[in-house]
Amino acid sequence: MISSMLIFRCGRPAIRRPRLTAIVALLVLIVMWSDMAQAIPKRWATDSSGSFATAANWDPVGVPSGADLVRFERGPGIAYSTTFPGKINLPLPVYAFDSLRVGPNTVSLADALTLLQGPGTVSITNPTTAQVGRGLVIGDSNLAGASILNSTLAHLNAVAATIGDVAGSDGTLNLNAGDFTVTGSSAVDDELIVGNQGHGVLNINGNAKLNVVGAAGNIVLGKQASGFGAVTVAGVGSQLTSIGQLVIGEQGFGQLNLAFGGQVHATGVNGDIMIGNLAGARGYVWVNENGSQLTSSGELVVGNYGEGYLRVAEGAIVDVTGTSGNLYLGKFPGATGEISVYGTLNVEGDADIRSGVLDGDGQVNVGGDAMVRKGSGSRLFGAGHWGINGNLTIGGSLEVQSATGVSVGGLLAVESTGKLYGNGSISGDVTNLGLVAPAALNDDPVGTLRIAGNYTQPTSISGILALVIADAQAVNDRLEVSGNMALGGGLKVAFGASYAPQAGDSFDILDWGGVLSGAFQFLDLPFYRPLHWNTSQLYVSGVISLEPVFGADVNEDGYVNAADLAIIRAGYGITSSALHKFGDTDGDHDVDGRDFLNWQRQFGGISIVAVPEPTTLILFLFAAVGLLGTSLGPRRSRAAGRTAVAAALIALVSAYTGTAVAGVQYNSIALSGAGGTSLGLGPNLGSGVNFSGFGFPAINASGEVAFHGIVSGTGVDTLNNLGIFTNVGGTLGVVARTGDAGPGPNLGSGVNFSSVSEPVLNASGEVAFFSRLTGFGADGTFDSGIFSNADGTLITLAREAVAGPGPNIGVDVHFSTFNSPLFNDVGKIVFTGKLTGSGISAANDDVVFSNIGGTLAAVAREGTAGPGPNLGPTAIFQNFSGSPLGVSALNASGTIAFRGNISDNSLSPSTSTGIFTHANGTTVLVARSANSGPGPNLGPGIIFGQLGGSVINAAGNVAFDGNLFGGGVTFTDDSVIFSNTGGTLAVVAREGPAGPGPNLAVGVNFGSFEAPVLNAAGELAFMGTLVGTGVDSTNDKGIFTSVGGTLISVARTGSAGPGPNVGENVNFSNFFGAPVLNASGETAFVGLLTGDGVNATNDQGIWANVGGALVKIVRKGDLFDVDPGPRMDLRTISSVNLTGNSGGEDGRRSSLNDAGLLTFALSFTGGSGGIFTAMVPSPAGPGDFDLDGDVDGRDFLVWQRNPCVGNLTDWQANYGSPFTAASTTVPEPTTWALLSIALAGGNFAIRRLIVERIARNY
Question: Transmembrane residues, as ranges (predicted)?
Answer without folding.
Answer: 616-633, 645-664
